[in-house]
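seq as requested:
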Amino acid sequence: MNDQKNTNPDSERIAKRLARAGVASRREAERMIEAGRVKVNGRLLTTPAFTVTAKDKIEVDNEPLAPKEPPRLWRYHKPPGLITTNKDERGRRTVFEALPEHLPRVISVGRLDLTSEGLLLLTNDGELARQLELPSTAWSRRYRARAYGKTTQEKLDTLKDGIEIDGVKTGPIEATLESEKGDNVWVEVMIREGKNREVRRALETLDLQVNRLIRTSYGPFQLLDLRRGAVEEVKAKVLRTQAGHLIDIPLEQDRHKRKPPRRGTHASAKARTDSSGGAKKPTTSAKSGAVQNAKRPPPKKKAGARRSGPPRTRK
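struct tokens:
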């Protein structure tokens, strides 16, 4: 199949459609297509250079593509010892094997290596993951690094203009010396690109050997007090505020809680509703037509009843 020349504004590349459906990232979706795992309208797709519309029937591994859900995002406190991949050839335990069963199929936003820990963002939307990873988004990634060795703030400041690692220039790296404990130092590091092992390799150029690395934030999303191994969904309203400029996040995904009714409204009279849900109307007598449920007047006080207030004194 050749790439379609379609002017339909609702059409999009098949890899993008798969990514937005949460099947995989764009790159992974392209590999799935090249492996012969994707069909469009019953025909096997052999190239990712193909556009589809909402009317096309898409199958992945002979299963219909599920309807797209609104983009969602989770914060996950990754423990050390887990690898950020769907399947590891060496049999190591993956992040996705450790996630709670109630989570839908998710993909990670970027990676944390085996021994790193801290904040890892997860999403059900491949296009959202791609946008959050792009260097052009310029979202900061902040880390706390414990490293063996000695350094000064002056040395750390040499990373501000970026450095060359294996002939590739990094972006600016902001590093702040936090404290020194024995033979180790704690350094706070901020980067914006997130190249492979960038923090570790940058500090190695200053003779610092990182032995613990914790990601504390990714853009506006922070680790805070999320316990190790826990997952917490970012509220839809917050996600729309922070990432709505990157991809389309529908308004209907905002799950607003119903506000309590104002006093005096019909909804506030819930206690006076019958089993059918309608308001309970006052009933009348067949003979007199008197209202049976009308408010009764206060009972008359009995003669000789003691009044409230201070006792009378005899004159």
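Residues 12-64 form a domain with the Structural Genomics Hypothetical 15.5 Kd Protein In mrcA-pckA Intergenic Region; Chain A fold (CATH 3.10.290.10).
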